[in-house]
Amino acid sequence: MLTEQQKETIKATAPVLREHGTAITTRFYQMLFEKHPELLNIFNQANQKQGKQQRALANSIIASAEHIDHLEEIMPVVEQIAHKHRSLGIKPEHYPIVGENLLIAIKDVLGDAATDDIMQAWEDAYQVIADIFIDVEAKLYDETEQQPGGWKDFKPFYIADKVVESDVITSFYLKPVDGQSLPTYNAGQYISVKLDIPSETYTNIRQYSLSDKPHADYFRISVKREDEHDPNGVVSNYLHNDTNIGDHVEVSAPAGEFTLNTYSTKPLVLMGGGVGVTPMMSMLHQVVNEQPNRPVSFVHAVRNGDVQAFKDEVTNLVLNHQHVNVHTILSNPTADDRANQHYHHEGFISFDWMTQHLPYEDADFYFCGPKPFMETVMNHLHQLGVSDNRINFEFFGPQETLQTTA
Questions:
Q1: What is the DSSP string of 388-403?
Q2: 95, 185, 238, 343: which is the annotated catalytic residue?
Q3: Which residues are known binding-site members?
Q4: Which architecture does CATH list for 268-394?
Q5: Is the pTM of this model over 0.85?
Q6: Which residues are annotated as a binding site for FAD?
Q7: Model confidence over 269-321: pLDDT tens digits?
């Protein structure tokens, strides 16, 4: 337990951490991987190169410092991170390694400002926070393993089919090698896929949203092929270009907190930007099956029809559901798009468009996509007076902060 004095010490350091947080976490990861290169088999190196993981960890540390006397207030974030940790295979034995290097990084960056009292307070605080994560993750591991069809860590699957959805997105149908039935999952959840790529020194793990409703015999993920020079493209390009039907991959059980609330009967708005449509597809499947009378607005914003995935699937899915309205928004439609009117709006999602076409006064909103897309949507929702308890979103990758102006 932390003393009241230690809590006050931790809270007092929050402004300093906010100023130097990214420098601390950058130093932390540098030392961590130098001392424990085996952890490079777990961490996403693309996120490291882009600084996303450093910023996400810095934000977590700052939030912990600011709420150290009321840690229950950050439990939603803890739950979200714990789901990611469970799907990656983070274990209790990793936490002392992290703590040791994090404390050294704090001391290195803050220098003389990191007094003995401050460092002792942070050492004790880290243990309290680590224990919370370990406890939450232990429960998730147990629940995952004990559910019907569940398993712990990773399990061998094979690629049963590859289906091209657009010029840049391909769906992969993954079936368990042992032929056992798969666990059910909540729309919006994801799985981790672990690959040993011949050209890469370390194992690569990536998390992909499940893009279909639950099936007993397969998972479906739909992967965007990134530019070959993009650090995010190592795994996606390998999946697209170098895997074949029958190839094996390692897969975690489904995880994630970004899930559809089917207890709500409010109108539902599902908004996907580009490949961010993948969790929206799973949610669309769920709502038309479980709440066929619930009004739904399904919005997909994408560059043009060539890169738009799931056009036919969405059309067929809503064919007999009069309560579902589909809105396709193309920012740069092709000549074929214009000739055949394969879309409903040209340009980007605007405040006026949302005002005219979406039931913003009482709807629940779920959205996912590139950060600029999500910031645009969030700003418009705030301008429209939509309360935060009706707004749900998820980043692909480490949690970031949406910069809003409203």
A1: GGGEEEE-SSS-----
A2: 95
A3: 85, 190, 206-209, 274-279, 395-398
A4: 3-Layer(aba) Sandwich (3.40)
A5: yes
A6: 190, 206-209, 395-398
A7: 999 999 999 999 999 999 999 999 999 999 999 999 999 999 999 999 998 88
